Amino acid sequence: PGLETVINALDFERIAERTISKKTWAFYSSADTDCYTRDRNKEFFSRIWWRPRLLRDVHTVDTSSQILGHDVGLPLFVSPAAMARMVHPEGEKDIARGCIANRIPQGVSTNASFPIDEIIASVPKDAKHPFFFQLYVNKDRSKSEALLKHVRSLGVDTVFVTVDAPTPGKREADERVKADEGLSTPMSGAQAKNDKKGGGLGRVMGGYIAPDFTWDEFKWLRKHWDGKIVAKGVQCWQDAKMCADAGLDGVLLSNHGGRNLDCSPPAIMTLLECQLNCPTIFSQLEVFVDGGVRRGSDILKCMCLGATAVGMGRPFLYAVNYGQEGVEHFIEILKSELATAMALVGITDLSQCHPGLVSTLDVDHL
Ligand code: FNR
User: Fold this and answer.
1) Looking at the record, which segments are called Disordered (predicted)?
2) 284 exposed, middle or buried (CB, 10 Å; 0-12, 13-18, 19+)?
3) pLDDT of 360 above 90
4) What is the ipTM metric for this complex?
5) Residue 252 · residue 308 · CB < 8 Å
6) Atom number, ligand 1, closest to the C-alpha of residue 291
């Protein structure tokens, strides 16, 4: 279908399900075991209700904001997701190009399908486009050290360290579909296929990830990275507080799109938990959220509950099915949905977001 018929994130997803290869769909859409978390991530947003304030002048609405010192057209970033080339030959490069117009920062996975050098080089230098590097800490720390040094030399100022994946989850859809002919994983040089024990692509690619990275090692990380550090994958307020006290620059509340531990909480529930139990976190570091965000109004709900910005993973993979143009179109859709939601709840600027604009009475006692 033509791009002009695509009017929301779900349209992109449905088209992807019909048009991309079986293995790619299985790898992207899959999640741990029974997929409760993946599905609830999205559903949970419907349990946060608005408390709109009316009769304000909402003639002009401004969606612009800031993320870790970068000006952005809306408070959104691309969550790092492996292997965007499985859906489109230009994968992560077209995601990058599609993000330029609204200055949306792109999280680049350690398991991206192009070397990060090539992804960064795919946008004009004078665009000064922000990239965040996602680090899976290697069992062999010296490999991570060399990688960090290299990435920093490319001008990247922020690393997202993924902390929720000491081992990958059991993604059964990915396990069932064995291989995509002709697709290779650049990280290993091997074909995109499962291993002999039946482990899916996630497991095949993640063999090097350290299962013994602990809090103490943020000191090691600081030694090898003089930019900003964000912990990705935090799932309760106590760990968020520990990130703040460890002096990190940000925390991404996330359950990895439900891909690692089924029945981990939707991130907006963790956000709410932080608001209720430890609101000082929000003045210590920037708090981000991802998982199940699909609408501009979802973005606004997170902002009202104290988030600095939100990330999206799968939606960008489904949008880049249409290449750069698809990504641009998708971001414009979200921006327009966000502006509409802002006007309807009665604000013109994101600095006016506050918890009083939402009702969480429908959320079980935390
Ligand atoms: C991911 N995610 C992920 N996270 C990470 O830290 N490193 C990675 O390499 C990947 N790879 C990856 C691949 C695919 C196919 C998906 C769908 C996800 C998780 C990602 O960053 C993010 O947390 C979730 O995708 C957010 O959920 P939604 O937006 O997909 O619902």
Assistant:
1) 170-196
2) middle
3) yes
4) 1.00
5) no
6) 27
